[in-house]
Specification:
single chain, alpha/beta, two-stranded antiparallel ribbon, 12 strands, binds S-adenosyl-L-homocysteine
Length: 345
């Protein structure tokens, strides 16, 4: 049965036309669904339509399977259970300005980055748009009615969003729709390892979300060692694609740079990074590598990160060291899911 959350307003209009119900009901159904309401409780719909909806659709398919709350900073890590038994994870970070949810876009990932736990078992499957909406809704319901709801979304959990392009695009359309959860494009970030062809598509199809590039290296030699995707798209391809994205959308580009001891954290790397980013409207987030036990990589430590930052700043590159949140609850990509799978084996 189709998942009700997979439908945008046009999909509902088509469905309603098929069962000879008026078009205006589409918005009503959509609005209720995004408040987390079951078909039975949609009080302004006729009983017959409610019965049809119950017969034809699944509702609220994404369940919270487990929740961990960080004692350090209140960050919440969620493990969601999908209808087919797969599990995925999401993280909720609360800031002064709002609640940001980091959601997964795939079960597993096929990018196989050397530092990341999500790719360890490869890609299992793509998430549907409805499942991504389901992650957001489940957390909104968990936050509770009347409490501050999710205000910002980052597509930075497990999976490569641009490797699941059509579903992610539909998710963006649904989640930013003003009859529903209504998160504005400006409050959404999409993080990619750099599937350049899709960056052009995104600029044309849904430009306006913040584009974040997981760069992690200042040249192809270093990047080839840690990110297999670099065999298909080189750093110069990424720079060209993000320039297009900026021209088309006016949105500054964010670069993620996880500091890995002895691999990408030298002063020479910092200088090289400054050269390739010179003149590009961008910001660099330096990240302390999260330890993944299956990977033999170490984080750089405070001093090298501070020195790296100084070189970038001296060269006029906007950069900050990203605050680590939720480190006591396996906040990094794919780690918690993996642990739970291993416990359940
Ligand atoms: N596939 C997308 C989004 C998921 S990864 C992407 O590549 O951007 C989300 C971010 O976490 C990426 O920047 C990724 O490089 C980073 N990341 C993954 N594992 C990490 C680890 N062990 N420590 C620090 N950052 C990590």
């Amino acid at each position: 049965m189709p998942d009700a959350l997979d439908y945008n307003i046009q999909d509902w209009e088509k469905y309603l036309a098929r069962i000879c119900e008026p078009k205006f009901r589409a918005k009503q159904i959509f609005t209720w669904l995004h408040k987390g309401v079951d078909f039975d409780e949609m009080s302004n719909l006729p009983k017959k339509l409610q019965e049809n909806l119950k017969k034809d659709f699944d509702c609220n398919c994404v369940k919270i399977y487990k929740k961990l709350v960080s004692e350090k900073d209140g960050t919440r890590k969620y493990i969601f259970l999908l209808p087919d038994g797969n599990i995925i994870e999401g993280v909720l970070m609360s800031y002064k300005y709002g609640n940001t949810i980091c959601i997964s876009t795939q079960v597993g990932c096929r990018m196989n980055c050397a530092f990341c736990a999500s790719g360890l078992d490869g890609l299992i499957r793509n998430l549907t748009a409805g499942e991504m909406v389901g992650e957001v809704l489940a957390v909104n319901n968990d936050l509770g009615e009347g409490k501050r709801q999710i205000t910002n979304i980052v597509l930075m959990g497990s999976g490569e969003p641009l490797d699941n392009y059509q579903n992610v695009l539909k998710f963006l359309d649904i989640i930013s729709c003003n009859s529903g959860i209504n998160i504005s494009k400006r409050n959404i970030s999409l993080s990619t390892c750099g599937l350049c062809d899709k960056i052009y598509n995104l600029a044309d199809d849904f430009g306006g979300v913040t584009l974040t590039i997981s760069l992690h290296a200042p040249n192809d030699d270093v990047r080839n060692q840690i990110m297999p995707v670099n065999k298909a798209f080189k750093i110069k391809d990424i720079i060209k694609a993000v320039k297009y994205y900026f021209e088309k959308t006016g949105r500054r580009i964010i670069f993620e740079y996880s500091m890995i001891q002895g691999i990408n954290d030298s002063i020479a790397c910092a200088k090289e990074l400054s050269v390739i980013l010179k003149g590009l409207p961008c910001h660099v987030n330096l990240i302390n590598l999260n330890y993944v036990k299956e990977k033999n990589l170490k984080s750089s430590g405070k001093e090298p990160v501070a020195k790296f930052l100084k070189v970038l700043e001296d060269n006029g590159i906007s950069a900050t060291i990203r605050r680590t949140m939720g480190s006591d609850i396996e906040g990094a990509c794919g780690q918690l899911r993996r642990k739970i799978l291993q416990i359940n084996e």
